[in-house]
Description:
It is built from 16 helices and 14 strands. It has helices at about 5-20, 25-35, 45-60, 70-95, 100-120, 145-150, 155-160, 180-185, 185-205, 210-235, 245-255, 300-305, 315-340, 420-430, 505-510, 515-525; strands at about 125-130, 140, 175-180, 280-285, 290-295, 345-350, 375-380, 395, 410-415, 435-440, 465, 475, 480-485, 500. Strand 4 and strand 5 form a beta hairpin.
Amino acid sequence: xxxxxxxxxxxxxxxxxxxxxxxxxxxxxxxxxxxxxxxxxxxxxxxxxxxxxxxxxxxxxxxxxxxxxxxxxxxxxxxxxxxxxxxxxxxxxxxxxxxxxxxxxxxxxxxxxxxxxxxxxxxxxxxxxxxxxxxxxxxxxxxxxxxxxxxxxxxxxxxxxxxxxxxxxxxxxxxxxxxxxxxxxxxxxxxxxxxxxxxxxxxxxxxxxxxxxxxxxxxxxxxxxxxxxxxxxxxxxxxxxxxxxxxxxxxxxxxxxxxxxxxxxxxxxxxxxxxxxxxxxxxxxxxxxxxxxxxxxxxxxxxxxxxxxxxxxxxxxxxxxxxxxxxxxxxxxxxxxxxxxxxxxxxxxxxxxxxxxxxxxxxxxxxxxxxxxxxxxxxxxxxxxxxxxxxxxxxxxxxxxxxxxxxxxxxxxxxxxxxxxxxxxxxxxxxxxxxxxxxxxxxxxxxxxxxxxxxxxxxxxxxxxxxxxxxxxxxxxxxxxxxxxxxxxxxxxxxxxxxxxxxxxxxxxxxxxxxxxxxxxxxxxxxxx
Length: 529
């Protein structure tokens, strides 16, 4: 029997023992099943939803150690208020004619109460969703969004230019480039798509058409709208250059990758414009590496091992190009470091909303020696008691390569109010680097790790999800552990303050194309202050 099965069996036995000890005490039975196994919830009214939320949080929430309010007192204060709203809804439902305005007003009052409760929590990933009793519609609460909405630097993050400081090449040498879906879908591919358009027009004009020609025409009708989307996407990309294709042509040729399948297949990257994990990689003329990752959502390694028959050729091109670029970045950095020509590194996680924890190795992990880097400690819930935690366990980050030493040249990470989660993990790692600092503005404040799937209930401890997203009347997404970073502590609800604070000047960029935060990072590396 595997360790997991043994642990699950032990947990089941413990749950059975608890039931025997508790006799007919129904509430304890429900507490055991809320976050562990239940996918069905017999709740409807506000007071029932509130009761489930209170008990579920009491059992499953991992961040009690950092909260400063009395959860038992919260129960006493808000239970009568939710019961009063239930009475109002019942009264409205008994009326001769429905009053939609009154129902909505009641729903708004309930949401306000839920906000009053959950906006107290510091966890940056906490998300609460419930089916409203008055209207039957789903409502969601994000405490960290409510908490951060009043930040004066949030507008700076929203206005941050996507193109950054690179107009006309700027500080960068000729190998500056953007690796993204838009740049990989280069002119050579679009030229072949032009052939598709010609084929479509030719087949559409035929008075008689064969079955084979009809199949081709159907495929073209499906593909051409996507072609137009790709055209618009590429036209607005300030970094697009056909030279990228030349950089990888030899590699593609060696791998015998066909750019387009016979049936005119388009790449299915599973990322839209805003979710593309774009890599911005460049080297300044005085050998400072700049690397920006827009989100921690790189294609999975296992995808690269999928047989070619089930992975489109264009997908394969896109996925492999990401890792080729990052491997080249790593090799180039260590080559320059060994030669004594590397002056420093700037990592940019501004506006990076986080993503998959495995991708940490592809950010700061590119520049640390080839072993796991320990960034701090974590505690997980380990029992029904509110403060039942495991002992502190190490939080480790994988590093890329087999390097014998860390790159110890100055390292600066650019952050702002929308640097979240994995972006903050990377920030904490850089700040622990002997010559690493953060520059910009305070990060969002969400440093705890999440379960791999928001609909997955934890089966190895008591933290995780309450209910199932989109299915149960109540769903709560609770991070998996309480993380504390060395020299920083718990960052949830607080964020990571920069070593050098400087607000982004959007007006300066609009007028001159200059990024003042990036320029300050350059001056720090060049002048050491």
